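Q: Structure tokens for this one, please.
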Amino acid sequence: MKILIYGAGIVGSAYGWQLSEAGHEVTVLVRPEKKQTVKEKGICIHCTDFRGGQKKIKEVVFRPDVIDSLSADNPFEYIIVTTNNLHLNEILPVLSASAGKAHILFFQNMWVNDLAMIETCLSREQYFFGFPFMTGGGRDADGIHSVISGLKQSHTPLGELNGETSVRVQKIAGALEKANLKPVAYNHIKSWLITHYAVAAGLSAGIMKAKSGQNFAGNSTILKETIKAIREGLEVCRKSGINPKAEKAARLYYLPFFIAIPIAKKVYSNEALCLMFDGHTQHSPGEIKRMVEDIIADGERYNVEVPILKRMKEVIFKCV
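A: Here is the predicted structure, written as tokens:
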């Protein structure tokens, strides 16, 4: 398939590289000032791959086709949007005018207002949703530092808002399966995304407070505070009409603390997760702040008290 990765960041580069390795024609859309550099030098990826129960270090130069603009007569079957959530409002007009016949797969953190914004700009026939749960990391002057998780729970959720397992979901799932990125089709992708947003906001704030994923996993006090913050976010989800208890990944946070904290310590001490957490919190503090603010704002809208999230915002994000 011809696939466009919208954004040459950490997630887009990793997923694009893996899809390319699986035999697909991958093109990356970059900003005009970056086009020539990426075209000449490629994208340097320093990958720590934990799949298969082994830690493998890979050094590659990913050389996709590169474009800096999109036209409505583009040849792509899929456009996978992997930009930071903060850029959604600037990319939607581009997609509205220039996506053409391509299926748009949003690979981003999504809150209720983001879904509403997409719906005002695009028809539902144009887009569906997923999440890049398999990868994370950071970047520096040497390139992308990518982590691919080997945890049993790690996968790539996909789904249509109407719950249908459509042909386009099945087809991209086949491509991701061939790339060993563990696609799973959901019939409740909206619920998954909104619940994940609430969990990720509180979790990321806790990790930022602890200064690293490893510190976070070893600190019972911060873990307890973080679980309380996540519960606040999940209550906001519930009041907005989403049932977070239906999502398996959220059930940990409803357990009594004497059970939840030891489990959280074990799960979050995983090396791959720590690396992914550190990359996200170091490189996307603005997005995390926005996520916390979204939940606080909707907490006020639905009369849900969120004192811990408010305190975290004031303490952690005062310089962001």
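A few notes: The radius of gyration is 19 Å. Residues 63 and 216 are 36 Å apart (CA to CA).
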